[in-house]
Amino acid sequence: MLNFRNEHLLYVPLILLIFSLPLACNAHIYSVENVELIVYRDGLVHVIQSLICNETYPTVTIKLLASRVENVLVLDENNSLLDYELTGLNMTVYSLGANRILIEYDTFELTSMESGVWTLMFNSSFSLTVKLPEEATIVYLNDVPMMIGIEGNRTILHLSAGFWEISYVLPITVPSETEPTKPSETEPSNKGFSYPIELVFLSSILGLIIFSMIFLFYKRKRVIDVSQIFRKYPELRDDEKNILMFIANRGGKIFEAELRNAFPDIPRTTLWRMIRRLNKMGILRVIKIGGQNQVELIYK
CB neighbours (10 Å) of residue 42? Predict the structure, then answer.
């Protein structure tokens, strides 16, 4: 049996205080303001996490929901990029001077699919919101959410901290066959009407001239040098550089649909996240033209 003198017992509270100091300090380094998980049909999960942090601390270390992440974006309250390091699930952000941090990343690690049933599974130390894919039907929940809502065609789950397993199914979309449009009986028919040969010839010549002018314009347009952008943003990945060079070779502007066709190996959602990341970095801007998004290179 161990014997302690009374004076030795005086050191016990002091030792406990010393060991509890890091825990007490960590509570004052940052607090989680909001966490949102947006789940897409292909299993991609986009995580958005906002923190309120103590600006006097040089770094903030937080635990991510997944270890395999991509398209990581870390910003302060002024939308300035912050440096970070990843070690497994831990992210260390060099946040000196920042009082708010926004972290965004994509991951396929949280979802799996078997026999047509998707499962979202994660363990969180904080409460969060999950937005399931459009028209998803929940078939299993391991616990009762704090709240369930609807936003458009998405089911929104407000979840408390802890382990969560959510299974859902997606509807199979089959393209509908449309019948050929029949001419209206009241509309005049062009059947039997012929255009003069002179008009056809002049139209062909005019079309050829216009085509030649457009071709010469694209042939002579200036190719933008993106090397300056690469030097300014050394953190750009190879796939992002390839996209920027492709846009530059097209005169600095391109529709998002053309960009998807040019890079078929990049998933649509991943490409969209890349464009959004480059937009926040001030390299690209997205302009709505009609029903399409035009991606424009910002160069100075």
Answer: 14
How many C-beta neighbours within 10 Å does residue 291 have? 5
User: What pTM was estimated for this model as a whole?
Assistant: 0.59
Residue 124 belongs to domain spanning: 29-169
Among 122, 152, 169, give the residue marking a domain's end: 169
Residue carrying structure tokens 């009082």: 99
**Beta-sheet strand order (sheet of 30-39):** 70-76, 100-107, 45-53, 30-39, 128-131, 154-159, 147-151
Is residue 182 included in any domain, yes or no? no
List the pLDDT tens digit at each of the 300 positions of the chain: 445 455 555 555 555 444 444 434 445 688 999 999 999 999 999 999 999 988 888 899 999 999 999 989 999 988 888 899 999 999 999 988 888 999 999 999 999 999 889 999 999 999 999 999 999 999 999 999 999 999 989 999 999 999 999 999 998 866 555 555 555 544 444 444 455 656 655 666 666 667 556 555 554 445 577 888 888 888 888 889 899 989 888 888 888 888 888 888 888 888 888 888 888 888 898 888 877 888 888 865
Same domain, 156 and 38: yes
Task: Report how far apart, in Å, the C-alpha atoms of 212 and of each of 120, 143, 200 are.
Answer: 54, 66, 18
Where a domain ends, among 169, 192, 207? 169
| In contact, 46 and 274? CB cutoff 8 Å | no
